[in-house]
Specification:
It comes from Amycolatopsis methanolica 239. By secondary structure, the protein is α/β, with parallel strands linked by helices. The protein has twelve helices and twelve strands. It folds into three domains: 44 residues, 434 Repressor (Amino-terminal Domain) (Orthogonal Bundle), CATH 1.10.260.40; 137 residues, 3-Layer(aba) Sandwich (Rossmann fold), CATH 3.40.50; 128 residues, Rossmann fold (3-Layer(aba) Sandwich). The strands form three sheets. A six-stranded parallel beta sheet has the order 2-1-3-4-5-11, sandwiched between helices. A four-stranded parallel beta sheet has the order 7-6-8-9. α11 links the parallel β8 and β9.
């Protein structure tokens, strides 16, 4: 076995004084490299006796026509609807979609981005909430910037505070405010909120919208009115159980997502309460699942959001997402059977 150290593509790029992306393109035979730069790369590779990893080249060549979609939970209908929109645009561009779930774990999200970078995906879409965490933001930027400099495309869905990327931004705060106003219009004056972890930007923005909407109507939402759980159906169920155990007198339960609302309705039913006769329940998103369920919610065009995210990423005018363009998407309050005027004689 030879003791000579393994020569990497990075070594070739450093010796030729070009970027890693330029070195890769020159060695792969692409025409998008100036002749003088190509000669420098080829000379450096010959001088260093660089031997490309055939398996890595095959992997990279096969995955250049892929798009990586990173979400929190692939079983959540919210992400399924967004991904459907991504797939529609990807198919029109001859791209294959790879889906990765993070289980709302920031370290796992970073690992997914790193893996997609290594496989040289054409684009990376972050479709889940950002984390209210400065350290995570810095680490994510450190992963995405070199990927983008190497020709990768990036776009995100929902607010990512300091991450410079093209964004499709649902109006979570505005939708939450409008929902509160609609429930107030039905006659509700006592509210509780069932929500996911506020370290997620989507959750933080929706709860802030509930607070702002209520404050504008002269109603304070105290910490005793907010019940948190995981951002899924089971979290909605457990948070509503806590609400019931606290003997909260809300006539309307505002939940941070449709899937949490499904859990909330189940918990209320298990306690012998009827929706909306005893208490009204609202959701957020309008995933297909809840349309037959009759859930009052804030409808978002989820498939369009996914489609626009990939369109932004693939748009050459956007510099791979580095320009930080924002497409804002408004929601619509959809009144359905899970809400009604509060009864005069309330439970308890």
């Amino acid at each position: 076995m030879s003791d000579r150290p393994h020569v990497t593509l990075e070594d070739v790029a450093r010796s030729a004084e070009v970027s890693l992306a330029t070195a890769s393109r020159a060695l792969n035979g692409t025409t998008r490299v100036r002749d003088d730069l190509r000669e420098r790369v080829l000379s450096a590779a010959a001088e260093l006796a660089y031997t490309p990893n055939a398996h890595a080249q095959a992997l990279a060549g096969g995955s250049r026509r892929t798009v990586g979609v990173i979400c929190h939970d692939i079983s959540d209908p919210y992400f399924a609807a967004i991904t459907r929109g991504v797939m529609r645009v990807a198919d029109s561009h001859g791209l294959l979609v790879m889906l990765a779930g993070t289980f709302a774990d920031p370290d796992r999200e970073l690992a997914c981005v790193s893996t997609l970078r290594a496989q040289r995906a054409s684009a990376i879409l972050l479709t889940g909430s950002a984390f209210e965490d400065r350290a995570w933001e810095r680490r994510m930027a450190a992963e995405l910037e070199p990927y983008r400099r190497g020709g990768g495309r990036v776009a995100v869905v929902t607010r990512h505070r300091s991450l410079k990327a093209d964004t499709v931004a649902p109006d979570n705060r505005g939708g939450a405010r409008a929902l509160v106003e609609a429930m107030h219009g039905l006659g509700h004056r006592r509210f509780a909120v069932v929500t996911g972890p506020t370290r997620l930007t989507t959750v933080a923005d929706r709860v802030a919208g509930f607070r702002e909407g209520l404050a504008g109507l002269g109603i304070e939402l105290s910490e005793r009115d907010v019940f948190a759980g995981s951002f899924d159906r089971d979290g909605g169920y457990e948070a509503t159980k806590a609400l019931l155990a606290a003997k909260h007198k809300a006539t309307c339960v505002l939940t941070a997502s449709d899937v949490m609302a499904v859990g909330a309705v189940s918990a209320l039913g298990a306690a012998g309460l009827s929706v909306p006769e005893d208490v009204s329940v609202t959701g957020f998103d309008d995933v297909p699942l809840v349309r037959d369920f009759g859930l009052t919610t804030v409808g978002l065009p989820l498939e369009r959001i996914g489609a626009e995210a990939l369109e932004l990423a693939l748009d050459d005018a956007g510099g791979g997402g580095a320009r930080g363009r924002v497409r804002r998407v408004s929601g619509e309050v959809l009144l359905r059977g899970s809400t009604a005027k509060p009864r005069r004689r309330r439970r308890g």
